[in-house]
Amino acid sequence: MKLKEITYIHSEAMPAGELKHGTLALIDKGTPVIAVVPPGESQARMVGNIEEVRARGATVIAVADESDDVREHVDEFISMPSTEELFSPLLYIIPLQLLAYHTTVE
Fold first, then answer.
1. Stated pTM of the model
2. Is 57 buried (19+), middle (13-18) or exposed (0-12) by CB count in 10 A?
């Protein structure tokens, strides 16, 4: 939402489980995808989603725990300190806000 609001670039945020409900069909070569991969049970499913969008040519930026193996599946990796799953939204929002800001400045 912040990226859309301050850059005037169309973007959509969605839960990983809803990627296959139409949105995946819109992904093509060069489409930027930002994957937020918090610690916890959903991590394996997120890696699967990352592989699906990469197979369609998307450029994937991941925000994930520094110790995760997500790094090998993405084009760019933003490393986050290890934390409990419950607290991850508080930390993970910081690089996303900065990404929106710096995209706007560019």
1. 0.86
2. exposed
